[in-house]
Amino acid sequence: MATALVLSSTSARAQVVQFDTAHTLYHESPTRSNMTVYTPGVDLAVTPADWITVRAGYEADIVSGASVATKAGPAYQAVNPGADVITTASVHDVRHAPRGGLTLRKGDVAYTFVYNYGTENDYKSQSIFASARTEAYEHNTQLEISYARNFDLVCDRVQAVNDRPPRFRALEDSNGCFTGSDPTRTRHPLSIDGLQGSWTQAWTPTFATQLLYTAQIVDGFQSSPYRSVIIAQGLKAQEHHPENRARQAIAARANLYVRPLKLAIRITGRAYHDTWDITSGTGEAEVEKYLFEGFRVAARGRYYRQSGALFWSDDYTGGNPPLGPKGQYWTGDRELSPFSSLGIGLRLTYNIQPEPKPGGGTGRFLGIFAGLKLGASADAMQFYYSEYTLAGEELGNARAYILGLNLSALF
Amino acid sequence: MKTLVILLSLSIAGCVTVRPQQRAVLADPIMQFEGDPQANAQLRHAIDNREGSYGGGGVAGGGCGCN
After folding, report:
1. What is the ipTM of this complex?
2. Which residue from A329, A338, A399 is spatially nearest to A31, judged by alpha carbons?
3. CA distance A385 to A396
4. Which chain A positions have a beta carbon within 8 Å of B38's beta carbon?
5. Residues A404, A376: contact at Cβ < 8 Å?
6. Band of the pLDDT at A368, cuts 50, 70, 90?
7. Strand, coil or helix: what is A334?
8. Average pLDDT of chain A?
9. 3-class DSSP state of B16
10. Which residues of A touch B10 (CB under 8 A)?
11. Of the candidates B22, B35, B63, which has its C-beta nearest A205's C-beta?
12. Most exposed: A43, A193, A335, B22, by fewest CB within 10 Å?
């Protein structure tokens, strides 16, 4: 391992260009809906001098499937037996997201600035990101603070002038959303301010911890414009969420290397709360081990549990608690309902580090690579919804599969 | 909790240090918190879109893609 580290350090100093590409495939097919998202991404970083790195990248989300367009609960279904009140709509969209940025270094301090642009048929996004990172106590302590601001636009249907939210109709499709040619389309602003601070500490030669705090303020249109909820007998309305949401999360992570077993154990705990009254806890554990020089295998597990939003109800038309109306807002979003999930995964990583040149300097693999890393992962997540139903029918087969491939090359 | 406070106090005072020649394991990829940032960000993006929570991993934005 020590040899690999020396090589890694040597190549890092000689590094001029780093190319990264990652690909993720997400698939789920629960009752009445399905979703497949393919996310390819590429990044190129150039370090012409020790004090600066310039980056450019691109990522896409290629989305295909069918989502729930009209949500109703068991009380409504009971009053309307025989009627199929749940409807679905096909979803096909591509999000393109180019990005660019740079990192400036002076001594033990590094400043990073990134600009992201995202465009899809029904959503536009621009975001700026800035972070400052410093090291102290002989590099045993790292402190980082970062801020991100999103300036987003969400497409929606133009509603009748005199209509109020209970009469609002959902967006039919994304045609004409950002072309300016369709008078029935409008854009709502959505701004997101995010602040994060982290403290990473090496305690012993084999043990390090990290503490993170994230705060986020979301202001603007946060409903799905396509989703309707049946809120009374014969009354279907576009989903209606509050426009403001303040979110906070604190996470603690620990990395321990167990020398006798030659493996690393990672533990993460996260607590989250927001002003929509969602409280959640996440626990993650990962064990990673070198099987041979440069080749690592990791097994991981994740448990997540959240409470529902204050205005969540599986049926706004009535019924016994917890069913019934919940004030002035309504949602059909299962991510705002109380649920838990359990995930397991496996990751393989192979690092190829060329031998250094006999006379010193960076060696090259295949004559061009100063370093090469390949990674592959597979995860499965099972969701357990305690209240969410589709007109009384529980969401069966709520299982997601996530496959990942990534490659990093140093030149 | 008491142990954590003691460790924190020692660290802030600069008493707890891992010397450079002892950092071989800490510098190894197996001990990095964000070993594959791009792959981790994509996985987090996929999971965030299925949960009501956010944060504790990164603050960069860049779009929705969450139909």
Report:
1. 0.87
2. A399
3. 9
4. 20-22, 41, 43, 406
5. yes
6. confident
7. helix
8. 93
9. coil
10. none
11. B22
12. B22
